[in-house]
Design a protein that fits this description.
By secondary structure, the protein is of the alpha+beta class. It is built from 5 helices and 6 strands. It has helices spanning 2-12, 86-93, 97-104, 110-134, 136-139; strands at 22-23, 29-37, 43-51, 54-55, 84-85, 140-141. A hairpin with a 5-residue loop joins strand 2 and strand 3. Helix 1 packs across helix 4 (110-134) and helix 3 packs across helix 4. The longest helix has 25 residues, at 110-134. The protein starts with a helix and ends in an 11-residue tail after the last strand. Mean pLDDT is 80; it is low at 146-152.
């Protein structure tokens, strides 16, 4: 998750990320509400599932004076990004300008889209270089794998 956050911040050059920009709530989750017996034997409705984090506050993005890199310490103090999920790596590789335009054309300028695509290429170059140096399995993790602290 932190790699995805850092990657998004690099792509949009958001230099203002901090822990307060993550929200967790049942309505951003996989699961549902279920009825169960409460402590007193009366039925109660409780959430059962996985809460998914949502990033908020992208207002600092697309500033021309910002420089955010995957090589830098991130906002959460876990160091540079040294791993990426296979799914993210592939999706980023096949992300096109048309995809970005379809999703964001109403919100960002053509110049900002060009800059985002250029940074996409830089992110891919960064991970491609890590793969060349360390090997694919040391850098690209399967989406269901657990990342050890040494891989972060």
């Amino acid at each position: 998750m932190l790699t995805l956050c850092a990657m998004q911040d690099v792509l949009i050059q958001n230099s203002d990320r901090h822990a307060g920009h993550f929200l967790l709530a049942p309505h951003w989750s996989r699961g549902n509400y279920r009825e169960q017996s409460g402590h007193d034997g009366r039925p109660s409705i409780r959430w059962h599932g996985e809460q998914l984090p949502v990033l908020i506050d992208q207002a600092a993005g697309f500033r021309s004076d910002a420089f955010v890199s995957l090589e830098h310490e991130n906002a959460f103090g876990t160091g540079p990004c040294l791993v990426v999920s296979a799914r993210t790596y592939m999706r980023l590789r096949f992300l096109t300008r048309k995809d970005i335009c379809n999703a964001l054309d109403s919100y960002i300028s053509s110049a900002e889209i060009d800059a985002l695509m250029h940074r996409r290429d830089q992110v891919l170059d960064y991970f491609d270089t890590l793969v060349a140096k360390k090997g694919y399995s040391a850098v690209v993790i399967e989406d269901n794998s657990v990342v050890s602290p040494a891989q972060r």
